[in-house]
Protein: Chemotaxis protein CheR
Organism: Solimonas fluminis
Amino acid sequence: MHLTDRQDIEIALFVEALRKRHGYDFGQYAPASFKRRVLGLATALHLRSVSELTERVIHDDGFIHAVIERLSVPVSELFREPQTFVALREHVLPQLASYPHINIWQAGCAHGEEAYSMAILLREAGMYERAQIYATDFSDAALAKAQEGIYPSREMPLYLENYRKAGGKARLQDYCTEKYDYLKMHDELRAHITFANHNLVSDGVFGEMHLILCRNVLIYFTDPLQDRVLGLFRDSLVRGGYLCIGIKESLSFSAVAADFQLLSRELPVFRRVAPKAVP
Ligand SMILES: C[S@@+](CC[C@H](N)C(=O)[O-])C[C@H]1O[C@@H](n2cnc3c(N)ncnc32)[C@H](O)[C@@H]1O
């Protein structure tokens, strides 16, 4: 007989409460890392068990925002995984250069670092004025921080190194103001960024996208959920549009793999191709 661990039962009930009471469905998140985050949340709130967490989720209406903030992992960097930005600069942007308007969806934007990096990349390619970046996340708390574009100065050495490796053409300091212990991204970078709430588990397509970036988000999902989300991306892209995932992520296992062509073996950048005709 298989005995389910008491904690696993409590977590299953917690997931059920989040879904039924607030409409957030974590049922298809990778179980081990999700369990770590739930237990971490209970400990941080000095609760004795996950059941106490469930109780609060059901009865305390304002509590859900803090829960989503803690269960999401809004960790990012300016020009994170810089080699991907080199690929975008050298192989993707030149292909999009002739379009009169360029739609970009950046899913799982955390605190906005990737959206600001993309804005800088587009500016340096002379394409920003024609672009619209839709930067989405399911965490309102993360989106509020993304809108502000304020980051701790202690991260600056890492950001400078990433920007250099990404082939940056100016000085990163030209795009932000450094004050005391933080740096603030310049307002003009935000001019063509729309930050919006979108849940990859339950919300629908964003039509007519030329480029979608969703990096370091799929790793938190089980294969069936990754499959759903990758289908959403395929259906949101124009034919010939590009999809960029994280360097530790893959779509080779997915049903949508046949609809995408890998640009370079070393980098997770794909182009949407016409599906093969069924003989
Ligand atoms: C580790 S961050 C990745 C940030 C950025 N893309 C990068 O690569 O640096 C993962 C983000 O995915 C978001 N996320 C997780 N589940 C989501 C969902 N179902 N819908 C939308 N965003 C989600 C989290 O809130 C978090 O901000």
